[in-house]
Amino acid sequence: MLGLAPDAASAKAGTGVAKPAKWSGLGCGAGAVWGECQGSGKSAYRAAADLGEPAFRCSCPSRKFPCKHVLGLLLLWSDGAAAAGEPPAWVAGWLAERAERAGRAQARKAVTAARARDPKTAAAREEQVAAGVADLDRWLADQVAHGLAQAEKAPYRLWDDAARRLVDAKAGALAGQVRALASVPRRPGWPGLLLEEYALLRLLVRAHAAEGLSAPLRETVRARIGFTVVQEDVLASGERVRDRWCVVGSRDLAQEQLTTRRVWLRSRSGRSALVLSFAAPGRPLDVSLAVGTEIDAELAFYPGARPLRALVAERHGPAVAAVPDGTGVAALLDEFAAAVAADPWLDRWPAVLAGVRLARDGAGLWAVDAAGAAVPLRTGDPWRLLAVAGGDAVTVAGEWSGRRLRALAGWHPEEGVVIL
Amino acid sequence: MSDWDEHVSAALLGTERRAVPPLPGAPPPDGDAAGRLLDQAAVLAVRRRAGLRPPATAAEPVAPAPPEEAPAVPPAAAARLARILAGEQARMLGEWLDAAAARGLRVPARLLPDLLEKGRADRGLRPSIAGAAGRRGVWLALQNTDWAYLVGSGDDPGGGAEVWETGTRNQRVAHLSALRGTDPGAARAALASTWPTEAAPDRAAFLATFAHGLSAGDEEFLEAALEDRGKDVRQTASDLLARLPGSAYGARMAARARACLRAERRTVRRRRQTWLVVEPPHAHDDGLARDGVPFHPSGSFAPGGRGPVGTRAAWLREILARTPLATWTEAFGLPPVEIVCLPVAEAADTGGTGDAGAQDEPDGRGTRDVHIGWARAALRQRDVAWARALLKGGAMVDEPEALADLLAVLPPGERDEAAAGLVRWVAGQPDLVRVLERVPAPWDGALAEAVAGVLDAAAERAGQRHEYVLTQLARLAEQRLSPAVLPRLDALAARHARAPDEPGRAAAALVLTGLTDTLRFRTEMIKELVP
């Protein structure tokens, strides 16, 4: 619950408010929970939460969202303090309002989607993107013709300008990749890294122009450039896989105007999946997939040469705590090589290493498997993983970049799961 | 030079200056030289990415932690500890740790880094952390120099007798303390063997361990230490001798004390009874200094209830504090309860050395000096009968802290009742908070009731000054008060919350609610720890 708090102070205040004595009219039902909290003022604050989305509402003047009253309310609800009942008028009104708004948003979305499907609009966008991609091709050729050496002292503008032009050309995903390159010349061994990135971009440019690509590969290329597939289409026609999926890691990335949550899943039959969710900065992210649990669910995959991104289409039963199946280092490398062969632009892959012991040297942590093969680990704070492992063999899951593993979770037979 | 490296160097210089290196099996050329270089690099880059192997490392797996003996706390307790570590009711951390350790439980491994981090900043927490961190806590601390404080922080200094020869000062003190517990004579012999070569502060620290297992066998050594060069050593030796029954030191002090305090049959207001006549020493001499009473005993200038004590009175207090209490029961032929009730009179001051005026103040100043001296003696000699007598009939209203200290001397069963009496006695005085500070946890039974009453009274008189007192009381109570009084406090808080719109009342209700919240938190916290 406290994961919803906008900051630590709110979480603390929320636990302070989570006292049945401060509340009256606590109740839950119709997918919502509500109550009135006595604050410092005369009249009580009316707080309610729609558990579906989740969405919150409170009559207090706090600018924090969700405020401490809503957090306290949710904590009480999770403790079972709210009795089931009919929502009072003010809650019912809010829920109805929400439903109506959701209906309007749906309608608006349908209009946008319809417009996107309009052949004329689509053709115009294809043209715009093609021009943008051609422009990127010329830019890449310029960089290599003049020599990468100049990149070391080049200002951020060099990449930012190219990225802006791609944004104008409606190739958003491509723009993001180009902008991210600005940091490469500050890393050790940057000339090789930068050439690798430029070469992969050139590959994307040529793949976009190429005729006769297989349909899935074509989708991969289009997704990398910035064409999106709407969720409805994925749910309607995406590949469906039902399995027991373990949630092996979650990582939030705050960009300028959007926070992205990447949740990695691994199925019991060894399939990998990535569920993305987005929220404006400071707004709560999707919490339906908890690291360290397993769900029996049907996933719908986005199309691609190596389908990875997916939506949870249907859940069968509740989430239960579980340890994912893992592999050794060699198997991880093989798996990643196979995935790169299918999707050469693949930059992250969910790795679950089982039976690894942690090793330390001056540079940082390593995970060493039973065969003695080691991969470097990246963690913000190594101590929690070290403490839980205690020198024993553990399961470590995270994002494999091809060079190092960003550890996101660890499992110890006795100490349980640790989320990093 | 590999194909890839050739491509990188060509790209660095630029295809305007460097030809595109040949690559067998390259894709068909498309566009200019730059395009060709990028296409070839793409082929190589994908190959490289797919075939990338992690760099070699010489890092050895971390040595396994020793197996735990204690089980981890139940999940609910672990969740609460995580909340405490995150800042909720942070002052409960020490109690949580001690309670877990007392039940033979340990902190789960994933919370250890946050816990050890707390101990970095707060030294006071370290013993509690050491008690509950388990073996993995020490194992983890060995890998991070920031947490090194946990290593070897236990009571057990580790190692054998060689610690005395090679250890640090703290290790040696720990070794000596442990040895005093089992074989005081051997500890004394060990100390005697190195005594002349130790530095003065070390000598004082080592001598202080004689408090464990003090016996008549130590007298000779301590008497010799009275002549030590180090002031702290001399003081420690005299303090220890004062606690030793039947010592020559005690006899010397008793002789001095009897010169100051004698019983006399007097008739006052037609009542004939025994009076104690007190006459503080007129002069200070070297013998007195040697026996640990300096010319200016500590505290003799401290502003008490009515200004400085004065040197003569301070000497008297120190002499009485160091005199065996049996001296008085023998001299007066009365039990302690009756002795402390005897009226005290000032002797006519024949010295007139400038410290006169004692007899001009018939305000019981003499009584106070005598009783404070006895209280210190009872504390030092851990004399239950005297402590009980002083707490019941003592006259030290001005120095209730001294009485509060005596509570520790009483057997546990009597403490609550005696403390409750003391609390009721000083209720409403500014001393109240200082007294309560000295009453150790847990506050139970009659004491808890008395404290609840005091809280009620303080909330009732909610004003600027009393609000401060109430806050301070609540601060102490939330850590020590037994949760058994929760219902009463709840009712109190509710009553003050309903009170008419007085700003003070609302604030008082808030403090009381905070107190009940904390007490409830503590109750749940302890409940969760029961496996």
TrEMBL record, chain B:
Q: Which domain of life is it from?
A: Bacteria
Q: What is this protein called?
A: HEAT repeat domain-containing protein
The cross-references to InterPro entries, in alphabetical order and at most eight, read:
DUF5691
Chain spans, region Disordered: 15-34
In Pfam terms, one family for this protein is DUF5691
Q: Where is the composition biased (Pro residues)?
A: 21-30
